[in-house]
């Protein structure tokens, strides 16, 4: 089988390593089958797409909607690299699934309006499929409304004509979309489970995703929710595109 790639941007080793472990667990891939590239530490390689089965993008600290002068040199480099990669991915309709930061990468590439109107604190939200989502093969076997972990400072307020809306939540109208037939992005985190979200809550406690005195409340809220369906799409992605 040709390998998949996980493009990651987390600088903190503990959540970065756990993110990779979660993608391995829920895709069912081995480390040889899922190659991780930590873009915060190294330049994106020039990928030969014909040598890959598909591309995943993990979450990260970068906000596409930040003013250019507030973006670090690393963020500007990563955004430029994603722009070049997505030119080819979209043109070829190559299998791509961006989780959370996928909205900032694919959304920005397609000209979506991205701002802080629909930010969501770290929490569990009910995500509901659109008609297009209900018939999309990546969401096969998942209930029409399902709980998902979120936590983001920006989101899409307006999709471009090139995108198909697949899912929404009451507090964020664009939770998942598709470009073409094989290029996807989610605002929620399909890779996360309770252990994973707990690690991230502790790792990013000072990053402004929730108030300083809300740590225990945030932990309690995510621990009592049932989030078991979103990870299924990771295995489905692999089953659909492995070659």
UniProtKB/TrEMBL annotation:
Q: Name one GO molecular function term.
A: GMP synthase (glutamine-hydrolyzing) activity
Protein EC: 6.3.5.2
Q: What gene does this protein come from?
A: guaA_2
What protein is this chain from? GMP synthase [glutamine-hydrolyzing]
Task: Output the NCBIfam families linked to this UniProt entry.
Answer: PRK07567.1
Tree of life domain: Bacteria
Keyword Cell division carried by entry? no
Q: Which UniProt keywords apply?
A: Ligase
According to the entry, every stretch annotated as the Glutamine amidotransferase domain falls at: 48-192
Q: Does the keyword Heme apply?
A: no
Q: Which InterPro entries match?
A: ChyE-like, Class_I_gatase-like, GATASE
